[in-house]
Amino acid sequence: MLTHKHLKQVLTIHRLGTLNRAATALNISQPALTASLNKLEEHLGMSLFHRTKKGVEATLFGQHIIETAPDILSRVTRLEDELALLAGGERGEIKIGAGPVFMHGAMRAIIPAFCKRYPDLRLTLLTCTPRRILQDVETGRLDLGFGTISQAPTRSDIEIRPLIEEPVAFVAAKDHPLSARATVGKDELFSFPFATPDLPLELQVQADEFSSAKGSAVKNCLQTSDYELLFSTVMQSHAISGCPLHLAKPYLKTGELCALNYTGPPVMWQAKAVYRKVSRYSPSFQILLERIEQWFRQAG
């Protein structure tokens, strides 16, 4: 039978290229590893590796295991982790995926203090797209995700919780040609280049409509997930950025940026948290989620 142990052995053999090096990494003897591989190949009725003078090379069958095994092992590890949570234990790692807005705002405000309180807990933060966040939570690659998630989950054990909905603020440099205007319409707004991570869906629709009417595309002079660079670019150019209001507030308070009085169709930004329901059994997970929810209540 193909077991968890076999999958690890096949992956290690492939990664290191020889049975001797793989045996050392797996902390077993080379004859024992060879016997295990031979027994597995006999059971499957196929060869997984070509033996050569330089080492081993995966066969078509071995390559298929190599491509499939990491996801299987990840799911097994996650299942063990979740069973431990249900039994009253605690997890040693929380993997979080979030969009750039979260990384620049909520994560900066919350994560340092959280790491100080839980020094033995490992946090992994990844910048992801909303679609990727939902997919990775469903497959177990992420424990927690934050983003403008619009899709419905495909699994019943996934929970999605709204965090905030607020208007998008259009910001520009203090000396921008539109900064002194009492009102700024859609045509005026889109006549200047944009600097954004990704245009919100509603804004993209308006930009497409403007492009169709004018016969020319809206110019996006900078697209980056680095908000420090994005806001710095806006301060030093005639570019405009559309971002959630809470993200712009610190720069508006210091006067580094100004908010344009946009009178076109309203553009809203919404954020949600997504996670597997069993994760709520983790005390540290629960505290982290509560702190993020509290942060957004105060930010709104």
UniProtKB/TrEMBL annotation:
InterPro entries for this protein: HTH-type_LysR_regulators, LysR_HTH_N, LysR_subst-bd, WH-like_DNA-bd_sf, WH_DNA-bd_sf
GO cellular component, one term: cytosol
Annotated GO MF terms: DNA binding; DNA-binding transcription factor activity
Annotated Pfam families: HTH_1, LysR_substrate
Keywords assigned by UniProt, alphabetized: DNA-binding, Transcription, Transcription regulation
Domain HTH lysR-type: 1-59
PANTHER family per UniProt: HTH-TYPE TRANSCRIPTIONAL REGULATOR YBHD, NITROGEN ASSIMILATION TRANSCRIPTIONAL ACTIVATOR-RELATED
Family to which the UniProt record says this protein belongs: Belongs to the LysR transcriptional regulatory family.
Protein name (database record): HTH-type transcriptional activator CmpR
Lineage of producing organism: Bacteria, Pseudomonadati, Pseudomonadota, Alphaproteobacteria, Hyphomicrobiales
